[in-house]
Amino acid sequence: PVLSSILKNPGPSMLPWMASWSEVDLIIKNDELLLNGYTIAGDDPMTYLDCFSGNGTHEPALTSILPYNTGSVFWIGFDDASDFHNRVAGLMDAAGIQEESSDDMESISKRTNFSPEHHFLSKQKNEAALVGILQDMSEMAYYSLVGMTDAAGAFNSLKSFGAPMQYNGADMIKLDIDRLPELLFGPGFAAGAQPYLMQVENYLVFGGTAASLGSFASTYRSGKTLDINENFKLFSDNLAADCNFFYYYNIHTLFE
């Protein structure tokens, strides 16, 4: 039951589309649980793993800006952002996910003249992540982080699709597009509306509220980041240097 509840976070709508079949062994250690095994994507129906077909592996780099108390991370790495988005769009269309939402990329583009390729994907690098952080001891706040080749340029171009603002000294945008990370990267990034946006180093960070983004920025400025967290260091020892995706769950943080 514990593993079931953990694996339903961060995106409960993602798991049914992840793969056709998986087999894992549970390895129990003093301070960690390891799931080791293999999975099959299959061709019919299309799965999320199919979106990575033909892609090389990549090194996760964004842990250096994540808050120390991060509870969950779903990280993905891909070769080409535009190609990956097109594959994800095909998956979401085949799965009927867009039909369940009030807005999809096509209607957003018609309403706002937003071009995923021109305004975002052409400025993107090869990694993104959905991150969960427990706040107020009861509620999980979710953030989407996207690596960019020109984060400042992308941030400025997105001002045309929202209202620039400041919160606790941090420059932000309240976008008119609520679910941009999910629409770009698929159901693994389904964590509700994330209309608020800010820039941190070479990353764009999406959040549900200005206050939650302000909290993220404050933790980053303090230097208390995930890459110095001993629990995450132990977890990282079990990862390959390069990969296509990984999950990280700090069970103590998620359930404290």
Number of strands: 10
Q: What structural class results from the helix and strand content?
A: alpha+beta
Residue ranges: pLDDT <50 for 5 or more in a row? 9-13
The string of secondary-structure elements, in order, is HEEEHHHEEHEEHEEHHEH
From the spread of the alpha carbons, the general shape counts as globular
Main sheet makeup: 8 strands, antiparallel
State the helix count: 9
Q: Report the end-to-end length measured between terminal Cα atoms.
A: 17 Å
- What is the gyration radius calculated from CA atoms? 18 Å
Helix content: 25-40%
Mean pLDDT rating = 82
Which percent range describes the beta-strand content? 25-35%
Q: In which order are the strands of the major sheet placed?
A: 6-7-8-9-5-4-3-10
What does this structure look like?
This protein is an alpha+beta fold. It has nine helices and ten strands. The protein has helices spanning 2-7, 81-95, 105-112, 116-119, 151-157, 180-185, 210-222, 230-236, 251-255; strands at residues 21-28, 33-40, 72-77, 124-135, 139-148, 162-167, 170-175, 196-200, 203-207, 245-249. It has an eight-stranded antiparallel beta sheet with strand order 6-7-8-9-5-4-3-10. The longest helix is centred in the middle third of the chain and has 15 residues, at 81-95. The radius of gyration is 18 Å and the shape is globular.
Give the arrangement of secondary structure elements.
Blueprint: H1 2-7, E1 21-28, E2 33-40, E3 72-77, H2 81-95, H3 105-112, H4 116-119, E4 124-135, E5 139-148, H5 151-157, E6 162-167, E7 170-175, H6 180-185, E8 196-200, E9 203-207, H7 210-222, H8 230-236, E10 245-249, H9 251-255
Antiparallel strand pairs: 1-2, 3-4, 3-10, 4-5, 5-9, 6-7, 7-8, 8-9
